[in-house]
Every structure is written in C-alpha cells, then in structure tokens.
Amino acid sequence: MLIAFCWHHRIHSLGDAVLIAQTLFSRQVSSRCRATLMSSEALRCLPNVFFIGASKTGTTTVARYLQQLSGVHFVGRRLRREDKHAEVHRFDRPGFASSFKSVELLHEWASSPILPAASAKDDVIVHYTPHYLYAPSVPSGIADLFPPKAQPDLRFLVVLRDPVDRAVSSYWFKNSHLFQDSDRGSVSDMWASFADELRRRADYEKCVLRYHQHSARYHIPILAGVEESQNSTYVRMHYIAFIAAMTRTAQRLLLEHGYPPPRHTNANPPPPYERLSGLSQLQEDHLGALRTCFGPAAFRSSALGLRHVDKSIYFDQLARWLLHFPLKHFVFVANADLQRDTGASLVAILKKLHPQFALRQGDWQRQLNAALSNGSTHNGDLPHHLHRPNKLHQRLSRDNETFLRQTLFRPYDDALQQLLVGLLRP
Fold it and tell me: pTM of the entire structure?
C-alpha cells in the first residue's frame, strides 16, 4: 500500500519522502514561500511562472536561455528520475486526478530550489511543461491546487508559432528516433494523419455544442440545426462563436468579482447564483464538456501529444485557460520574433515576468549576450527551434499547406485575435 502511494505521487526514494516531510514541518512565511528547517533565511517558494507551451514552438530554446540567468530558477522534479529534460508534467499526468492534493502541493514546494530569503520572493521560479497549453485538465488543476493568495502572482508564458509549421514539426518529431526505434514517417502518412484529425475535430466541436445546449443561463445562444448539420464549416462557425462568448463571460466575471474568486465552504456559502456562482458553474460545465468530448481515456492521456493539428489550434486552448485566469496574467511571444531577434524577445519576456526587471536588466543583458555569442544553448547543440531530429523531414506540398493555413487554421486564428483584442479593449 505504501509503495503504491509513493509511486502514485512520484515519491521515488527515501530521500524524496524525507524532503516532503521536511517541507510539511517547515514554517510557511507567505502564501508562496516556506522557510527550510535549517534556516529561516533560506526559502522554498512555489513557482510564479508557468511556461505552458505551445509544444514545438521553440520553448526548449527559451527555457535553456532562461536557465542561464541569475534570479531565474526552474522547478526540478521530473516525471521519472531518469528524465533529463526540464518538463515537470505534474498536472497532466493520469494519476493527478486521484492523488492527494495536499501531498501534491508539498511535492511542488519540495521540488523548488532553496533560495536566499532576501531575493526568493522576487526571483522568477518557472514550472515548465509545454504540453500544458493543450492538456484540457491542467488549467482547473492549477487553479484548484495553488493557494488563492498566491494566484495573483502567477504568470503564464506562451510561445506561439505558425500553426502549419508547428503541426509539421510535431509530426516529424514524434516519428523521430527520439520516440521510435528509428526515424520514420512520410508526407503521405502525415497528410493521412492530419485528415483523420480533421474528421475527429468536427465531431469534437459538435460534441461540445451538444453538451452546452442548456447554457442559455449564460446568455450564450447555440443556434438550432448544429446537431443535425453535416457541414463542418457551419458547425465550426457556431463553435467559435460559442467558445468566444463563453470566454468573454468568464473574463467579465473574473473582473467584476475579483481574482481569484473565493472558495466557498459551508461556513462561507456562495452568494446568489446570478451574482458569482455563475463563474464556477461555467468552469464546471466546460470541464464536463471537455471530459466527455475528449473521452475519459484521452482526457489525461499522454497520447494527446500525437494530435499534431489540434495542438496548432490555439484559439480554444487559450480559451480553456481564460476561463480560470485573467488575460493580463499571460505573456505571449511569437516564434518568428524569437528567430528574428532572440535576445530582444528574451528581454521582453523578462520585463513582463520579473517585478524587479530594472534592477536586474544589466546583469541579464550581459548573461544573454554571452549565451547568444556562443551560438548555442546547450552543450554545443543547435538552438532547439532550428534542430530537426528526424532525417526524413519533409514539408507538405504548397497546395496542402495553403489549404490548412487558409481553410482550417485561419478562422480560429482570426477568432483568437478578435477575442484578445476585445478583451484588452477598455
């Protein structure tokens, strides 16, 4: 029983158990930070930055540059002890739903670095897993686990890339020798897998609309005829309109009632339904829709990483996050800007992430210049966004790329742009 408990909570050794026990008995000095048992001048603090994706957009390059800067630290625990990457995968793993949340929170604290008390509260502590942007269960998992008073300090870093380039890169990466016994894949197989995703996407969107048929209480109309329609364009149009309206409603409620919203108990019951609980009901309803329409088996499955096209549709991925967190907590960077001027893009990221940016700017600029002058980010390797691990890598035909970019991705990209502009407008 004890072995199963430890395995389920990723406690791999006696040392891990001791570290979590020490964290449990340490003094909490703020909503984010705990003093170590050895010294009150050394703190472990929960992350204040979640680097959530998107996958195959240059996130590894950004992470490796950030790791070289003073005052920027990464959560250190891995899915398996032998993992060499910096991805944590706490909230998207299958076992998270049935784990003890108190243990998970202690585990997150214990996974953070020990820092001097003088700088710990202002330093950037990054929890890095680029699959989080797509994983449907993660936004609610973070919102439920993190202490409410720590949530206003959270920032979410997102790198976005041309959706066709991202999907193609993802296909070849997942078919490379890093995941298979040898490099494999072909253009015809890639297009066939993309076509299969397009069919499943249409079913998914219809499923979400069907689940929310009773969402009129949010004043989000779903037009009649969607259920019977076999026209994927018609379904997509109403799906986009519904998700956008739902997101605007959630952001308005977050703004009106404060963030994070209070957690209600028997001693602190919610106010009348129309006043506040509409937000939690909206979040709960859409989480139910995601669980149903992804399917119970796929909802937390690592196989979601094989959805190359779907992971390039950023519109509803970001909408899932905006149901729980205000837009002002998100920092966006374009992969094209990273490739055009990596240094300037990294400085722009740091300026938005660190409250004492002006005091650190000189040191960070020198450290970045040194790293950039080496022309690499890790042991002499090419920057990750320029590295192609699959020797068979080929692009789609121009006609197929144009079809994907204009017919599939453009409606979602336009809707995302309109949504973000509308939310940012005073």
Answer: 0.91
HSE of 312, CA atoms in CB hemisphere, 13 A: 25
What is the residue type of 8? H
Tens digit of pLDDT for each residue in 377-414?
Answer: 443 343 444 467 788 889 999 999 999 999 999 999 99
Nearest partner of 335 among 169, 200, 204, judged by Cα: 169
C-beta of residue 368 within 8 angstroms of C-beta of residue 346:
yes
Question: Hey, CA dihedral for 395, 132, 44, 107, is it positive or negative?
Answer: negative
Could you read off the pLDDT of 13-62 as tens digits, one per residue?
A: 888 888 888 888 999 999 999 999 888 889 999 999 999 989 999 999 99
Q: Which amino acid would we find at residue 310? A: D
Q: For residue 17, what are its two tokens?
A: 């158990």
Closest CA to 23 of 99, 119, 145, 108: 108
> Is residue 310 within 8 Å of residue 243, measured between CB atoms?
no
Type of residue at 72: V
For 244-262, write each residue's pLDDT tens digit.
988 998 999 898 877 777 6
> Which residue, 129, 141, 114, 118, is CA-closest to 283?
141
* Sign of the alpha-carbon torsion through 382, 383, 388, 394: negative
Residue-by-residue DSSP string for 246-315:
HHHHHHHHHHHH-SSPPPP-SSS----IIIIIHHHHHHHHHHHHHHHHH-TTTTT-GGGGG-TTGGG-HH
